[in-house]
Amino acid sequence: MTPPLLGTRPARSMTTIAVAVVLVLSVVAGVVVFWRVTRPCGAGAGDPGAAVSGVLAAVQEGDERGLCRRVSSDYRIPDDEVAVLRERVRAVGGGEEVSVAEVAEQQMGGLRVLVATAADGRLIGRFQTIPGQRGALVVRATTSASSW
Fold first, then answer.
1. Are 114 and 49 in contact (CB under 8 A)?
2. pTM of whole model > 0.70?
């Protein structure tokens, strides 16, 4: 008589486990990419400096979707300002060469004023940001050197 096979279970191979892990990671990555692509305009982008840097990168690349995510949904940067920002960012060699600094004395409540400048001190633009649900949003942008 053969003894019953109770308490034993077949072993899973490492290949099966690796394939399962890769499939799960692929699904998670797909969900993240889908969320980023369909994220609504005015969703916010980290801190105020990240929002301004993101706006400058989107302006430089002509990325309308990236721009709308970092700008408040009820504000649109005027086309002439976008053209000047694009020209200034390209003139200094790209967004990596631009520094963004907060102007603390112009802060009003949650509203923050940030200035983007080139390494040699030339003005790129001035931005007002405000915190949103998922990060800071740009609510006004200008290429003028004068204050608001």
1. yes
2. no
